[in-house]
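Continuing the series of single-chain predictions for the mutant panel. This is the parent chain; the variants come on the following pages.
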Amino acid sequence: MSEFHFYIPPDNISGKRVIFPEDERDHLVNVLRYGEKDEVLVTDGEGRLFRVVLEKVSSYRAVGIIKELVARREPPIPFITLACGLIKGRRLEMVVDSATQLGVGAILPLICDYSVVRWKSDASPHEIERLGRIAISSMKQSLRLHLPRILQPSKLEDVNFSRYSTILYGDYKGVPSLVSLGEEIKAGEIFLAVGPEGGFSHREKEILASRYAIPIHLGYNRLRSETAAI
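Parent structure:
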């Protein structure tokens, strides 16, 4: 049995029957050459790992039957939402890839005053879907069982901060490390914001300060935005 994890969205699991989505089916059939009666490992992205016996496999459909629940993992604690300022090129993809491997619970593309990149409203669903595919690939590669949520792009003033117990953001004038905060880091959900290439504007820092956000010093080296986020 392969240790490779396939991802099956929860909506594709009905009782003990699982239906492989198109991307996973193509990989299963055309790349890995699995056939009927073979066993594979499947995660639903919500912490469960199943052993599945392939029942029907063809170029247009792949269906399996859950043989057993292999593992169940609780969501990562603390739950971290990483808010990363929109950055140029494919560097946001690198953030999604690495943050998924490291156990981040949600990723928020942040529309900042100094963001060079501007997402058009009609392009946003396509971009979110693309980043979601990257998160799925990274989840499988790292053998993680929880798929992070890719949230809709937002400005800081539109974020619902009330759900977070601790709010942090990268700033060269911040405290030297998370360790130095001690008990200021509370149990619950953490919101961690990193700005784009130009950092956060004075206006955005005022918004964060009004939410009692804690600035974190990320070191003396000048980091690329994607490196700072990771």
